[in-house]
Design brief:
Distance between the termini: 69 Å
CATH topology of the largest domain: Rossmann fold
Number of helices: 19
GO molecular function, one term: NAD binding
CATH class of the largest domain: Alpha Beta
Number of strands: 14
CATH superfamily of the largest domain: NAD(P)-binding Rossmann-like Domain
Pfam family, one: UDPG_MGDP_dh_N
Strand content: 5-15%
Strand order of the largest sheet: 3-2-1-4-5-6-7-8
InterPro entries: 6-PGluconate_DH-like_C_sf, NAD(P)-bd_dom_sf, UDP-Glc/GDP-Man, UDP-Glc/GDP-Man_DH_C, UDP-Glc/GDP-Man_DH_C_sf, UDP-Glc/GDP-Man_DH_dimer, UDP-Glc/GDP-Man_DH_N, UDPglc_DH_bac
Radius of gyration: 24 Å
Structural class: alpha/beta
Organism: Mesobacillus campisalis
Mean pLDDT: 96
Helix content: 40-55%
Family: Belongs to the UDP-glucose/GDP-mannose dehydrogenase family.
Bound molecules: nicotinamide-adenine-dinucleotide, uridine-5'-diphosphate-glucose
Low-confidence stretches: none
Number of domains: 2
């Protein structure tokens, strides 16, 4: 059993702290956010993540997991201190290390004996050295630095954390390596031992590679539309080549979330600072931006104009299984629809509160999918929620003013949509036109 303090109780701190507790360690998760800690202490989850609440409750009941705003005390009682604070995108695109610096200073001020300081936040290469320097400014007590990046996906965070595909442990200290490797034994046998700098870069390389796959297939989808080909078949066929792999080849409205957009932008800066012009990642980011705009263009082409039209936007979260709307396509697209004169009815099963906080009242919100669709001129699908996949299409046709669907997640069969009489525009697949709608729209 190890005593672990996790600084930052956001998505990553909360999930990884809970999983460390579940594997038998004594974990205290701390945060500067009073509300979050009060909520957690009462057993209320600040985020929507399947399976998290049960695991948090179980581990708090069994006294392996606790929450506090008393960060100095948590640090002084721990053998291992994890930094899991946010590293948001600065206006210039690079990672903002403000919270990491603050956490490092607090650690330095409260070090009362040898401890292992581990970075779980996604941080630019060189941050391990920066953390070390900040702590040294505060104390002469020895410590070791480890980079142990996190690879969990929102919506499947518990599963990813309990069954890691690998753990990356970057450190110059063999003692620290042994301890952190032991901590990960319950989760994976695949441990990559490396330096702090290499571990820091591995995290960005992983996210950039996955983002590249998505932008690549979105570019292929856009070619498919011009040459009457079907991107879903292209994905299926190239994905069967084990050198390529079938995952992250779903064309759509582009990638969002708290990681890919910010981490690709940060990697561009890391490369630039190292004197390298990373053209590929720049293109990946640009393709992603235009992919979102394409959804607005498709709607406009289907309806003739958006002015005065009512659009049901189905899905606000950046992907299913989460209420996270950070950099979600919907948050970019809805303001553009409104700017073009459309009224928006926004549907999401769990992310409405988060969307309201960031978007304000640019649209009307509902968690009833049919209420969102009733009387609208078109539906725009942006999140592949099960509730959207399972929708009764005949009912949709009956209650909407015009049977028009722009599908940014390729959820439905082309032929079925043709037979139902929809105008159906998806991504990288043949368009289906209900002729009467086109003539009305024009
Ligand atoms: N969200 C993900 O799916 C995911 C996955 C892998 C890696 N990451 C990386 O992990 C890091 C954290 O991400 P997140 O989504 O959990 O962030 P978040 O913004 O949701 O949470 C960060 C938390 O840290 C707290 N905090 C900030 N400064 C603090 C301080 N000085 N002391 C104590 N608490 C402090 C904040 O109040 C907040 O609750 C980021 O670097 C992110 O890139 C995120
Ligand atoms: O084929 C695909 C796969 C994903 N997406 C989109 O890509 C985004 C990101 O999806 P996903 O990777 O599942 O979500 P995240 O929870 O952001 O997880 C990513 O970012 C995390 C934070 O760094 C990492 O830890 C994870 O390994 C990495 O997958 C979402 O908008 C998806 O809709 C696609 O458009 N097509």
């Amino acid at each position: 059993m190890k005593k672990i303090a996790v600084i930052g109780t956001g998505y990553v701190g909360l999930v990884s702290g809970t999983c460390f507790a579940e594997s038998g360690n004594n974990v205290i998760c701390c945060d500067v956010d009073d509300n979050k800690i009060t909520q957690l202490s009462k057993g209320e989850m600040p985020i929507y993540e399947p399976g998290l609440e049960e695991l948090v409750m179980k581990n708090t009941r069994e006294n392996r997991l606790a929450f506090t705003t008393n960060i100095p005390q948590a640090i002084s009682q721990a053998d291992i201190v994890y930094i899991a604070v946010g590293t948001p995108m600065a206006v210039t695109g690079e990672a903002d290390l403000m919270y990491v610096r603050q956490a490092a200073k607090t650690i330095g001020q409260n070090l009362n004996g040898y401890k292992i300081i581990v970075t779980k936040s996604t941080v630019p290469v060189g941050t391990g050295k920066l953390i070390s320097a900040i702590i040294r400014e505060q104390t002469k007590i020895p410590f070791d630095i480890v980079s142990n990046p996190e690879f969990l996906r929102e919506g499947r965070a518990i599963e990813d954390s309990m069954n890691m595909e690998r753990a990356v442990i970057g450190t110059a200290s063999s003692k620290a390596f042994e301890l952190i490797a032991e901590l990960h034994k319950p989760f994976t046998s695949k441990i990559v031992k490396t330096t702090v700098e290499t571990a820091e870069l591995i995290k960005y390389a992983a996210n950039a590679f996955l983002s590249t796959k998505i932008s690549f297939i979105n570019d292929i989808a856009n070619i498919c539309e011009r040459v009457d080909a079907d991107v879903t078949k292209v994905s299926e066929a190239i994905g069967l080549d084990s050198r390529i792999g079938g995952q992250f080849l779903q064309a759509g409205a582009g990638f969002g979330g708290s990681c890919f957009p910010k981490d690709t932008a940060a990697l561009l800066h890391i490369a630039k600072d190292a004197g390298y012009d990373f053209k590929l990642i720049q293109a990946v980011m640009e393709t992603n931006e235009t992919q979102r705009l394409l959804m607005v263009e498709k709607l406009t082409s289907a309806l003739g104009t958006l002015k005065g039209k009512t659009i049901a936007v189905l899905g606000l979260a950046f992907k299913p299984g989460t209420d996270d709307v950070r950099s979600s396509p919907a948050l970019d697209i809805i303001p553009q629809l409104v700017d073009r004169g459309a009224n928006v009815m926004a549907y999401d099963p769990v992310a409405i509160e988060e969307a309201k906080r960031r978007l304000g009242y640019k649209c009307t919100y509902t968690d009833d999918i049919y209420q969102a669709i009733e009387g609208t001129n078109a539906c725009l699908i942006l999140t592949d929620w099960e509730e959207v996949k399972q929708i009764d299409l005949a009912k949709v046709k009956g209650i909407s003013r015009q049977p028009v669907i722009v599908d940014g997640r390729n959820l439905f069969e082309i032929e079925a949509m043709r037979q139902l009489g929809f105008t159906y525009l998806s991504v990288g697949r043949p368009a289906v036109h209900n002729k009467s709608i086109i003539s009305k729209a024009i």
